[in-house]
Amino acid sequence: MENTAMQSNGGYTEKRISLKNIIGYATVNFLGGGSTTLISAWLMYFYTTMCDLDAVSAALIFTSARILDALLNPVMGFITDNFYKTSLGKRFGRRRFFILLGVPSILVVFPAMWLPGMSLAYYWFINFMYEVVFTMVIVSCISLPAEMTKNAADKAKLTGGKQMCGIIASTIASFIPGLMFKLYGQEDPFAFVMTGVIYGVMMALSLILVWAWTYERDLSEIHVYSDTSSLGKIMGSILSNVKTALKLRAYRLHCTMLAMGCIYKNLATGVFTYFVVSVLYCQPADASWVLGITQMTSFGALLICIFLCVRFGGPFTFRLFATVVFIGCAGLYMLTTMTGANSFFLILALVSVVAFAGRAGIDYIPVFQLPFMADIDEIVHGERREGIFCGCNTLFSRAATGIESLAIGVGLAAFGYTKGTTEQTEFAQFGIMLIACLCPLFLLGIGWLASLRLKLNSQTHKTVCMEVARLRAGGKKEDVDPEVRKVVEDLTGYSYDKCWKIKEN
Question: How far apart are CA 17 and CA 424, in angstroms?
Fold first, then answer.
């Protein structure tokens, strides 16, 4: 059924979110979730064991490409916010045009990342191109929940469906290397080549569904007042928008939780293969099977996380799932004293399930919170700037993954990791164990502190949206309820008197 039905919500009408819309939006996580899992778990391992690259060189490929790309994220957000002014944007959509462009791009770029025997310059360039395609699509896609609905429950359905699809995609991505190892052998680079080809096709097909089954806000409802008459004014608008986004208290705290969570989740996945193979003396295929098992069992954790986020808000849920991660890290450390024990693989799988269940929650919470940021920002500036917030969000998340890659690469090198072999010295094993078990405590501890200061839940978000609707309908600022004033000031970091500063076209 098409989205022709309308529902009333706080003074405005909007299209009803259907199951098809949820599925369409969700499938973007074949790119956003599955490819990230595959790259974090295997690409550095592939480069350091089969492509004759040392750990630092491999890390610099990821770090430099991701940070350079991260700087372009707000630019991409700005472009999508204003693309509706172009003929292509009017025809295909200001967000969905770039989703469609991602289909042929990912088909070429992703498999090319897994070719053996290439130069360091080649690996850097192809990773940078992947980051550009990733950003082009993801910035466009993560703007869509705020475009499609203002209803908190519908946003939770969209983001929750996306995370569930991310688990499906990550499960498939985790099992593919194991299947290719079985077909071609664990020492054959062609196993990785086929992994890239198969998953690249899956991502292209998923983006076709995203483009076909999502929609954007009507052009008449778009309120973006940026001056795009010259390159200088465009860059000035971008810098101004990024600055004002970061002045929003809720968004600063959200970004702290996001950055710490992103570094942790990618670090946990990235070091897991090294931990299983070089510290626990298991086979690479074992790491693939265990990762697949953990992704499948993360469904339950995600469902619990979605319920808790809707009921109690993201900050409380972050602290709860961080505690689960801490328990999982303790379990991973205990495994280092049990090597060779009976049923060791089963124990490894159970401990990993706990650790990655916590990771699933940490991964979802920033996704759940992000669509609320444009609503909070609207009470300050009277604009809908989803693209800027999504661009900044992707900037921090991609920069965080770059930091994670550098941390693993430099960390492995500092402890004497030897390229081209899975057998490592005791000192190198100790370093891998520290990265896997101790770093999450530090990273998520910082996120915990930020979550204590973020007063965002479904009720405070609803309060802000209703106040925006009141003001947009002609209500006077001086008539604001004292409780509403306090909520607005807690979330924005602005005095209420300085909010609702509408710009003229």
Answer: 53
Residue 9: φ, ψ to 5° = -155, 95
Output Rg (C-alpha) for the chain, integer angstroms. Answer: 23
59, with CB counted inside 10 A (0-12, 13-18, 19+), is buried
DSSP code string of 354-394: HHHHHHHHHHHHHHHHHHHHHHHHHHHHS---HHHHHHHHH
Q: What is the per-residue burial (b if ≥16 Cβ within 10 Å, else e) of 463-481?
A: bbbebbebbbeeeeeeebe
Distance between CA atoms of 46 and 181, rounded to whole angstroms? Answer: 13
As a whole number, mean pLDDT of residues 136-145 equals 87
Q: Residue 465: which H helix or E strand, with range?
A: helix 458-472
Residue with tokens 């309820």: 481
Instruction: Say which residues have a Cβ less than 8 Å from residue 105's Cβ, sequence separation at least 6.
Output: 133, 136
Q: How many CB atoms lie within 10 A of CB 440?
A: 26
User: Could you read off the pLDDT of 48-102 as tens digits, one per residue?
Assistant: 999 999 999 999 998 888 888 777 777 787 788 788 888 888 888 888 899 999 9
For residue range 453-496, list pLDDT tens digits in order: 999 888 898 899 899 889 888 888 888 899 999 999 999 989 99
- Domains belonging to the chain, first-starting first, are 20-219+230-498 (1.20.1250.20)
Alpha-carbon span 116 to 345, nearest angstrom: 30
Cβ burial, residue 430 (10 Å; 0-12/13-18/19+)? middle
**CA dist., res. 390 & res. 147, Å (int):** 12
478 secondary structure, DSSP code:
G
Strands (E), 153-236: none
Q: What is the pLDDT of residues 90-132, one digit of tens each?
A: 888 888 899 999 999 999 999 999 999 999 999 999 999 998 9
- At 14, is the pLDDT very low, low, confident or very high (cuts 50, 70, 90)? low
Report if pTM > 0.90.
no
User: And the tokens for 338?
Assistant: 């049990």
Which residues, at least 6 apart from 449, have a Cβ–Cβ distance to it below 8 Å? none
Helices (H), 214-343: 231-247, 249-274, 284-312, 314-335
Q: Which residues contact 210 (CB under 8 A, 6 or more apart)?
A: 24, 25, 27, 28, 96, 99, 141
Which residues partner with 475 through β-bridges? none
